[in-house]
């Protein structure tokens, strides 16, 4: 019998996938391993909300660390759009810049991590 634990634990599945990708990288090169991940793993995520299965703790802290590592300035969030501020369907659009260069944009509603008080501390973007 090959499998000692049934049902298979997620840790076992994760280690197995890492081993397959690592073995492919060793035997056929990193580009081939990258193509495997793109073609067989990422395609399974198409159309799915990544936030359903991946919770990023302290995203601004992680972004700050990445930008620092790359020799760039700290992230600067800017409120670029809002709709229905005093309603239960309030929606906000926050853009992030570093060194005055656009990095990305996200939409939030009042019931998510970015509530009214957090959105209010973002400076308004004026073009």
Describe what you observe in this structure.
Strand 2 (91-98) and strand 3 form a beta hairpin. The protein is of the alpha+beta class. The protein has helices at residues 10-28, 30-41, 59-69, 116-120; strands spanning 76-83, 91-98, 101-109. It has a three-stranded antiparallel β-sheet, with no helix packed on it. The termini are far apart. Helix 1 (10-28) crosses helix 2. The relative contact order is 0.08. It has four helices and three strands, in the order H-H-H-E-E-E-H. The chain has two domains: 10-51, no CATH class; 73-120, no CATH class.
Count of domains = 2
| Number of helical elements | 4
Return the structural class.
alpha+beta
Q: What best-fitting shape do the alpha-carbon axes yield?
A: extended
* C-alpha Rg (nearest Å): 20 Å
Our measurement of the CA-to-CA distance between the termini, rounded to an integer number of angstroms, reads 65 Å
What is the average of the pLDDT values?
A: 84
Give me the side-by-side strand order of the main sheet. Answer: 1-2-3
Helicity, in percent?
25-40%
Largest sheet: 3 strands, antiparallel
Strand content: 15-25%
The SSE order reads HHHEEEH
Low-confidence stretches: 112-117
Give a count of the beta strands, DSSP E runs of length 2 or more. Answer: 3
